[in-house]
Amino acid sequence: CGACKEFKPTAKEIADELGFTFKILANPKMDVPFFPYFYMMDAGEVVQQWGGVQERKYRNVLKRAKKSKD
Asked: Which residues contact 19 (CB under 8 A, 6 or more apart)?
């Protein structure tokens, strides 16, 4: 979708900056309530999920996940 394509570079940059791998799944076997929708996965399991293209929200979710891993 347009919002996904627009936010992709920002999402990838933030993920890289915080030490995460950013991937786009072409046809995920998951329910997607709206676009864009993000799933944070660890060892194939969904550990976080959220929607929207708010950079601040995205960054905060990744920071919290990083803290919980450390």
From this structure: 66
Cβ-contact 49, 38 below 8 angstroms? yes
| CB < 8 Å & 24+ apart, contacts of 5-9 | 6/53, 7/36, 7/53
Say which residue the tokens 């030490």 belong to. 19
Distance CA 31, CA 41 (A): 15
Tell me if the pTM is above 0.90.
Answer: no
C-alpha to C-alpha distance for 70 and 53, rounded to whole angstroms: 26
Over residues 46-65, the pLDDT tens digits come to 888 888 878 898 899 889 88
DSSP SS3 for 40: strand
Amino acid at site 24: I
Which residues, 6+ apart, have CB-to-CB distance to 32 below 8 Å? none
